[in-house]
Amino acid sequence: MALLVVAVLAGCSGAQGAGSPARVAQPSARPNVETSQACAVTARLIPSCGAWWGIAPEVFTGAGLERSLHGAESRIGDTADVLHVYHRGKEEFPTSEEVALARDPVRPRLLLINWKPSLDYTWAQIARGAIDRRIDRLADYIRRTFPERFFLTLHHEPENDVDAAPGSGMQATDYAAMYRHVVLRLRDEGVKNAVTVMTYMGAPNWAAKPWFEQLYPGDDVVDWVALDPYADSRVRDFDGLVNKTRPDFDQWPGFYRWMQWRFPGKPVMVAEWGVFERADDRTAKRSFFESVRTQIQRYPQIKALIYFDSPRAPRGDTSFDSDPAAGRAFSELARDPYFHSTPVPRP
User: Fold this and answer.
1) Contact 306, 266 (CB under 8 A)
2) What are the CA-CA distances from residue 181 to residues 117, 135, 188 (Å)?
């Protein structure tokens, strides 16, 4: 793979203060977008300055969504721009709880809705119309319930679900066809407010597969591109997280570099990221969060950064405050002016 890197989106950053704001006990409201002349939001929910700050809160804890979000925001001492939620199959979304959190009169939030349209049908079957009635019912529900713009990603991280065998219905080209069919069907049924996101795993071993490029559904149905990287013991800082490389895949330039080359005109979302607990290094999370704060502005094409907060993530503990020093560093990161530059628009 050629290591071709092209110019990226120019992004204006928020003013960086000399010191961090004092820690507060409860989340504080931020100004509405109408109060800012310099920084606004595009129709595709791209912040013209800085980047969105978001979270999937207290995942796998068993707490309800509202309790989880308010609990995480209280632990941070700040509120989120983007709330990441997950749905499957016939579930209708956004739920009343999600709508209420998005429309909070003091602190509105953008929704990132992660939907797996079916766990029973193959991608090829969905592309041929197997769940069209389900898609139509969902479209009717969204039209009646939630006219605001929201992020929508379909069957995120498809790489490890690919079955390259002929006729499997789960080849990379089947994924692309499924994604296109669902998005176009929703649009035909009147859902014009979904800002679509294509979410990759962001791992070098999958990017090296011969079918990898065939996953992409097309620019006309994808508004943002995203990756879901996690930091284990091999990843020391934010640079290493978004541009992971491995010696056994030496042609891979790193995901952010690839996205610069492949999608120079699209905003990039880090739709899930987390730092695993390291028993042999209790300072690792704190150091990592500090690296994000110092390095994020090197990546102007990244327009949203959404943390996966869970004490029981599949590969370990990604809760941001498992160590008090890590919690303080995460709170300082969340309140950094770069993530306050463009306020969330009100409904």
Assistant:
1) no
2) 11, 10, 10
